[in-house]
Amino acid sequence: MTESEEQIKLIEELGLQLEDNIKLSPLASRIYSLLILSSNEGLTFEEIQTIVPASKSSISVNVNVLLQLDYISFYTKSGTRKRYFRLAKYFSLVTLNVDLQDISNEVRLIDKINTYNKKYHSAKYTNENSLGDILQDYLIKKQTLIQDTIKKIDDFSATDKEK
């Protein structure tokens, strides 16, 4: 399999995963996947267009969405008017913060369910309490791990900016 064939296959696989995980449109997911697999130099709009089969306007709209979400950034080289798109330097922070918010919402909801069942269905709460506690404990541990990871990236980015 050639590099371009492998790239196209991986773009599709990664794109499907991103659609589910971070709720991007199919085209935005493919563009984002392409940029994950490209060099730090980034890609021009035209290069994106040759690899991702879509119209100029569709690509433009989805690139702008990725820019607004801070998943990607762009720069220009002196002497040219072309923009080069690449992953935002700390793009993983955006995803981690989305995950953290989702988990926080889930922990809050489980707590409400447990409180409701305890108040109105005490037998059910007593019988199923351990399941709710196990799930809530897992989510709190996951939440803590994500918070620790965000802090590490923040600390790293702070030292990176000092350089």
Overview of the structural elements:
α1 packs across α2, α2 (26-36) packs across α4 (56-68) and α5 (91-120) runs antiparallel to α6 (122-162). The chain is elongated, with a radius of gyration of 21 Å. The protein has a three-stranded antiparallel sheet. The chain is mainly alpha-helical and 163 residues long. The protein has six helices and three strands; from the N terminus they run ααβααββαα.
For the biggest β-sheet, the strand order reads 1-3-2
Please state roughly what percent of the residues sit in beta strands, choosing from under 5%, 5-15%, 15-25%, 25-35%, 35-45% or over 45%: 5-15%
Oligomer: single chain
Helix percent band: over 70%
The count of β-strands is: 3
Number of H- or I-type helical stretches: 6
Low-confidence stretches: none
Largest pleated sheet: 3 strands, antiparallel
Structural class: mainly alpha
Distance between the termini: 41 Å
Structural shape = elongated
The value of Rg in angstroms is 21 Å
Mean pLDDT score, rounded?
A: 90
Order of helices and strands: HHEHHEEHH
Essential attributes:
163 residues; mainly alpha; three-stranded antiparallel beta sheet; 6 helices; 3 strands; elongated
